[in-house]
Amino acid sequence: MRPSVFFYLTYALCVCLGLLCLLFVTYWNSHWRGGFSWDGSALQFNWHPVLMVSGLVVLYGNAAVVYRAPFTWKQKKNTWKLVHAGLMLLALLLSILGLCAVFDFHSGSHIPDLYSLHSWVGICTVVMFTFQWVLGLAGFLFPCSTTWFRSTLKPVHVWMGKAILVLSLTSCISELKYPTDHNTEAKFANSLGILTVAFGLVVFGILSRNKWQRPDTDSESVHVSMDARQ
Amino acid sequence: MRPSVFFYLTYALCVCLGLLCLLFVTYWNSHWRGGFSWDGSALQFNWHPVLMVSGLVVLYGNAAVVYRAPFTWKQKKNTWKLVHAGLMLLALLLSILGLCAVFDFHSGSHIPDLYSLHSWVGICTVVMFTFQWVLGLAGFLFPCSTTWFRSTLKPVHVWMGKAILVLSLTSCISELKYPTDHNTEAKFANSLGILTVAFGLVVFGILSRNKWQRPDTDSESVHVSMDARQ
């Protein structure tokens, strides 16, 4: 099988799993949790899982692999840097909106913030993501960024990108927990968890395969060609 | 700073975080959960988190990075393959013992098995780990293994290795959840969760940095030198 065919099959699996995650998280919250609203009630809380899975998992994962599609390799890298940064910004905004949903709900229901492991890991993820996005913008899109800064930043950016995905998966799974129920909702929510993890592992698979790495042509990559191949 | 100094500092951080994970999980279960026993009671269950964190996280993470220490690069790769396989086998045995602890406890207390997302992800992790170990033994240690098989297996082995670590972190965090408590035990258990994730991210950092990759000298690596650099 040609490498690009194998890539597109894997990418199709990644897209299907991502869409299933969105479908499952939306159906779960609309069918069993009462639907959506933005009024400080539990219905506002329901936006939290939907926005976090959409932004911090599905959109983030897709944005992470945009450079890997072989059809993009003949196009200018700067175009795809902008697509990558744009999708990541959208993912970040959805995540921040997801945090607003839960903070508003806590405030309306007098529930304290940031008391659980889920919230600790989750807030670390979004802070790290914000830091990564700003640093990525400064290093890879600002024209005044130096080659030294870009080449130093690139392996850190690659590692932090994977770390954020690990953190977002762990924080998602830590909250999708129905240990004592055996009903349909519990099984459905657990299946969403499995789908989320499966999506993350496929994204890791795409990122790990160096044959699918965009050939290095631009200045910072020449300097860090070894580190970029991660 | 010389690359090897940076490696050993990062590795020291990895070892310290791993030891802290072991200390925290043991203290948590002995101080707040009543200690340990092997009699089908809740005290047998307490072995579960200790054995899983020891085997599937700390020992697994350390076994994954053994090839990275620069002092091993001048030594025979086969020696370090055996160290890697031996440590992984120990990690696998501890994990299986950790599963026995929880199945025995469920059996003694008439609790059904495999009903939660934690158990679904956890059992997938151990099954995948077993599969990975057997395949690794057949591919990289059996003398009759062909070069084609080794070179095909290597990128899969590298990806599955990372996938298992992601799964073990998510399954650990999914069970360390004290959402409604604000007491010292909850904070302590949550801190164990943060330590576990931090340990995992440092292991990912070591694995992601190609400067710390053992130079390829053996036969299968020549064929897959690009894929091995992951």
UniProtKB/TrEMBL annotation, chains A, B:
GO CC entries: late endosome membrane; lysosomal membrane
A Pfam family that the UniProt record links to this protein: Cytochrom_B561
PROSITE patterns: CYTOCHROME_B561
InterPro entries cross-referenced by the UniProt entry: CYB561/CYBRD1-like, Cyt_b561/ferric_Rdtase_TM
Keywords annotated in UniProt: Electron transport, Endosome, Glycoprotein, Heme, Iron, Lysosome, Membrane, Metal-binding, Oxidoreductase, Translocase, Transmembrane, Transmembrane helix, Transport
Function: Transmembrane reductase that uses ascorbate as an electron donor in the cytoplasm and transfers electrons across membranes to reduce iron cations Fe(3+) into Fe(2+) in the lumen of the late endosome and lysosome. Reduced iron can then be extruded from the late endosome and lysosome to the cytoplasm by divalent metal-specific transporters. It is therefore most probably involved in endosomal and lysosomal cellular iron homeostasis.
Identification of the protein by name: Lysosomal membrane ascorbate-dependent ferrireductase CYB561A3
Originating organism: Dicentrarchus labrax (European seabass)
